[in-house]
Amino acid sequence: MIWFTADTHFGHKNILDYTNRSFSSVDEMDEVLIENWNDKVYPDDEVYHLGDVGLCSPNKLKKILERLNGKIYLIKGNHEKSAEACKDRFEWIKDYYELIMPDPDGFKEQQLVVLFHYAMRVWQASHHGTYHIYGHSHGELSDDPNALSFDVGVDCHNYGPINYQDIKKIMKNKNWTKPLLR
Questions:
Q1: DSSP strand E in 10-169: where?
Q2: 174 vs 170: CA distance, rounded Å
Q3: What is the pTM of this model?
Q4: What's the confidence (pLDDT) of residue 181?
């Protein structure tokens, strides 16, 4: 199974106020995030984390990352100093990535998914129906029903990851139409 998430902000006290997360403490937030992750993600699953893993010491973040199921791929956000110090826990760390998903409903049975921490208005082959998923906005950026883009941050998904099939359902319900090309 393939999962996507962003903006966990493990160990980050200020995120509680910034995003109005309803936890009494950072420790409670971290435990709920870990539990929600592991309730969905199995050890052999793949998780694409679209940035802002944690704002705490590298040692604390390492202990948290060791508790998370799955093979984790990191798309860097704007707060990755501690995550980069834990680079061995990630399959790879990149600024941007174009993931090709096997999908019987896609062009040539594939769906291109552009992964970036930040939302974009246009992206690689967006005019051909590629998906763009992102984080960073903590649910504060209004979803565009006419664009195949989507916020996968934990603040939008009950503090847990979302899988490809659920993203695909959301994208299919959007009003996107292929533009006329000149």
A1: 46-49, 71-75, 90-94, 97-107, 110-115, 131-134, 149-151, 162-163
A2: 7
A3: 0.95
A4: 63
